[in-house]
Structure formats: C-alpha cells, structure tokens
C-alpha cells in the first residue's frame, strides 16, 4: 500500500488518493450488500452501536489513511511504514486506559527503546520534510492504535462483522477525505491528466488498502 501511494502521488494529492480509494472500496463492498438487501452483515443494535461503528471508521479509515498518505508524501514509503508500525507498541501502552489491562516495566522499556530506535532510524532532524513526516506518521500510529483498542473494547458487546468495520472504514475515508479535499482545493479532486500508473495505483489501493 505504501509503494502504491508513492506511485499515485505524482498525479493525486494525499487527500485525493484516500478519497478515491475509499469511495471505490466502499462501492465494491456495497454492490453485493445492496443486491442481498443487507447493508450490514453483523448485528448493529441501535444508534449507539452504529455510532461506535462510525467512530471506528473515522479512526481506522479517515484519520489513519489521511495521515499515512501525508507521511508518505513528506518522508517516503519506508519511513511511513516504519513509523506507522509503532501502533502496536502505542496500543500496548494505552491498553490499561481502554481495556484495563496491566503492563509491566518490560512493556514500558520496550516503548522507550522503540521510540529511540524510531528517532535514530528516521533521523527527523535531517530536514523539515522528514520531521513533518515522522510527526504525521506518529499521528497515524496513534489513530490505528485507538482503532484497535476501541474495536476490542466495543467488540465485547457489539456484534458487527469484520466486513461491516471495513465498510465503515472505506466510507469514512472516502467521504471524509473528499470533503476535506473539496474544501482545500476542489481542482485537485480530479487531476487534469493523471498518469496511467497513478490511476492503476489508486485502483490497487481500493482493492488492497
């Protein structure tokens, strides 16, 4: 996905990449669901449950992909993948808050080592672009960590399916980033002359986000 984002960036903005890939992914998932007359395949009990599903979509779809795409544009695919990968460590640190799980000194030490290692390997002080990329990448890692934690916490009483969560992510990403791109620069939603490689990369991101 990170490499495909690099391929799409010459023609599309980070926001437009997320908007189109999210909308296309949502359309691909909605077609069979509409045909079967069942948009959600799991059990969504009331507005509160639907609201929690929407929050997961905003975190795991809109915010995560928006920040990852900007991270790739600023710092490149390698650094973006590395920094976003810190989400599992961040989730472990935040687990006591969201899941009431206990963590020992080893987890805290691992978090410190991971952060120091991230600074050494990414070298954000080399250029402003790298610094911006690392900071935005940390935002992506936090968004995905919150997505994982809340999905686990709410999964104890909500019974929506994995497909429902994926659909929520795609809709939130597509609609949210489309609105943002329209507010920022409407002309960038549809590039005047996108390259075939950029279009193919966007299609790939819709199928394999």
Would you give an account of this structure?
The protein is mainly α and 209 residues long. Helices cover 76% and strands 0% of the residues. Helix 1 (2-8) packs across helix 4 (77-84). The radius of gyration is 18 Å and the shape is flat. The mean pLDDT is 87.
Short description:
By secondary structure, the protein is mostly helical.
Strand content: under 5%
Cα Rg: 18 Å
Total strand count, please? 0
Q: What is the average of the pLDDT values?
A: 87
Low-confidence segments: none
- The global form is flat
Structural class: mainly alpha
Helicity range: over 70%
Oligomer kind = single chain
Order of helices and strands: HHHHHHHHH
Number of continuous helical runs: 9
Strand count, sense and closure of the main sheet?
none
Between the first and last Cα atoms, what is the distance in angstroms? 6 Å
């Amino acid at each position: 996905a990170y490499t495909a984002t690099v391929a799409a960036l010459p023609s599309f903005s980070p926001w437009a990449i997320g908007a189109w890939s999210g909308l296309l992914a949502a359309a691909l998932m909605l077609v069979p669901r509409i045909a079967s007359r069942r948009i959600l395949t799991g059990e969504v009990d009331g507005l509160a449950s639907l609201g929690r599903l929407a929050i997961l979509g905003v975190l795991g779809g809109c915010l995560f992909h928006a920040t990852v795409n900007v991270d790739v544009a600023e710092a490149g695919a390698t650094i973006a993948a590395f920094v976003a990968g810190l989400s599992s460590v961040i989730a472990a640190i935040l687990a006591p808050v969201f899941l009431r799980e206990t963590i020992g000194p080893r987890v805290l030490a691992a978090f410190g080592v991971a952060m120091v290692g991230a600074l050494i390997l990414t070298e954000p002080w080399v250029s402003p672009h790298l610094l911006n990329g690392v900071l935005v990448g940390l935002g992506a890692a936090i968004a995905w960590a919150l997505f994982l934690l809340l999905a686990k916490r709410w999964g104890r009483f909500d019974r929506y399916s994995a497909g429902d969560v994926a659909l929520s992510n795609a809709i939130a990403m597509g609609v949210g980033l489309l609105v943002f791109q329209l507010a920022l620069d409407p002309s960038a939603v549809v590039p005047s002359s996108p390259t075939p490689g950029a279009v193919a990369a966007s299609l790939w991101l819709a199928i394999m986000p």
